[in-house]
Amino acid sequence: MHFKALSLPLLVSASVLALSGCGGSSDDDSVYPSAYIQFYNGSPNSADTDLYLDDADLGSAAYGDASGLSTVDAGDATLTLKRTDASDKLVEVISKSVTLSDGQKSLFMLIGDYEAPTLVEHKFERQELTDHFILYAMSAVENTSYDLYMADAGAPFDDASKIDSLSFGEVVEGKYWDADSTNPNWDTGDYVVYLTEPGKTEVIYESPTMKFSYDTEYTMVVRQSAGTTQNNLSVDLVINSTSISSYKDVRAGAQYRVYNSLEAQSTNVSVKGTDTDNQDELVSRELGEFHSVKYGDYQISALTADNNYSFSNRLLTLNQGDAKTVVVYLNKDDKLTTLAFEESELPQVYEHEMNVVNLVKDYANIDIYFVRQDETVETAQYKVKRLGFANSEDISLPSDYFEIIALHDDNSGNQTLLYRTEALAIDEAVNYMVSIEPDVSSSSGYRVVLLH
User: Membrane-spanning regions, if any (predicted)?
Assistant: First the structure.
């Protein structure tokens, strides 16, 4: 079987050209002569997963993402989904025999528990469309069903129309409430989505404005968020590219936690909102628990136990579905201040998206290496280079044991070892944070700490 898989840069530009016309065609190419295949990852405890057709790698997708659309020959083939383990070996997740047909797209959606997943094949005839789109919908939330309502953007729930009921792993075609006899499909434009429990009218999810701009087939997937905010619903729109439009609940809550990085200083941190007044009494080097709050803008203030350091009324913005960590530290002028970063929304099971924070003001930048048992600093696969003071950066690590080594490189080939940890297990399904910070009790004057 022969394949024509587009690379990502080519895919994005090709998708824009294709989708801006009539469902991805032009006057010179008004039909879809080949078979088409795409993969969507809707398994909430999954790893980054690759799609293979026979022996060809057609791309990968993390949770809530999709591979590119690949053009392939029609016929029988073996579809396999694989992940890469901590030893960089491919591990089979699921495999099945498939039959691909000319003129049709097969969207394979992985849902459910990653250890025993469900693979849904959504197969449909691609169509030429003008100023219209086709809508399919499915729930990827196990043991839960929803009633799907939609309305024109800006309309309240009372003016929404029930489209269908959504069950786990069952794809339905949504019928447009305002279709006419000449065209049964949806008008392109802006809409809003509401979800309720079956047979009820209390809204449990409301989308922001959803843009259906392309003349193509959309597949709407209802899923739960992963990471820290695991109970929030999101709605994904899958089309013929790697770009997934994901919409959070406009009324979803948010979370935050605070890390007191100060040496030998307990600190009171206050976060106040319209109906919120949370106080955290954090001892030196303590990472607090997550607080669940409404989305919105908050005032954050802090005062050390000796009253020598403080700040007041800083702004902390928490949008719908956000989870943030706030780090309290001393800046270059020895003033108390904060930096904040968003926690990853990806599953923290096989891979760990963590934030690395540099609180060492003595150097312009620091290199941080995550060194496995068979590696050295020179051969380490995972590293963060030239991280500036009071900056943070994300890195993704597989579940494994790592020594964390912090170095300063003076750009003349001279490296100063600031700190080296023992081998640490990074294998829990939690949100990790790595902090490089001053420590008078350390022989080097610094330390590296792994927090969660």
Answer: none
